[in-house]
Design brief:
The protein has one helix spanning about 50-60; strands spanning about 5-10, 10-15, 30-35, 35-40. With about 80 residues, it is an alpha+beta fold.
Length: about 80
């Protein structure tokens, strides 16, 4: 797994990607999931949004063996029964 560097410049953070990570210049969509940050190329049109899912599917097969070996599982919430 490659490592990126995060630097702070005023109110902004800059992520420096290693050379082996290829990302086209331009805007990216940023999504934070817990402590993780996901960058995906911003689609130029609605038709290209499907390509994001294709990228996701391709990436699933490239996950390293140590991915989520340990994870924090929230306790199950007490809920009222749906049907009585």
């Amino acid at each position: 797994m490659s490592t990126a560097t995060v630097t702070v410049e005023g109110e902004f953070k800059r992520v420096l990607l290693p050379p082996e990570v290829h990302l086209a210049e331009g805007a990216v969509d940023v999504q934070q999931v817990g402590d993780s940050v996901i960058l995906t190329p911003k689609p130029a049109s609605a038709a290209k949004r499907a390509d994001v899912w294709k990228l996701f599917e391709e990436a699933i097969g490239k996950v390293t063996d140590d991915f989520m070996v340990e994870r924090v599982q929230s306790p199950q919430a007490d809920r009222e029964p749906m049907f009585e």
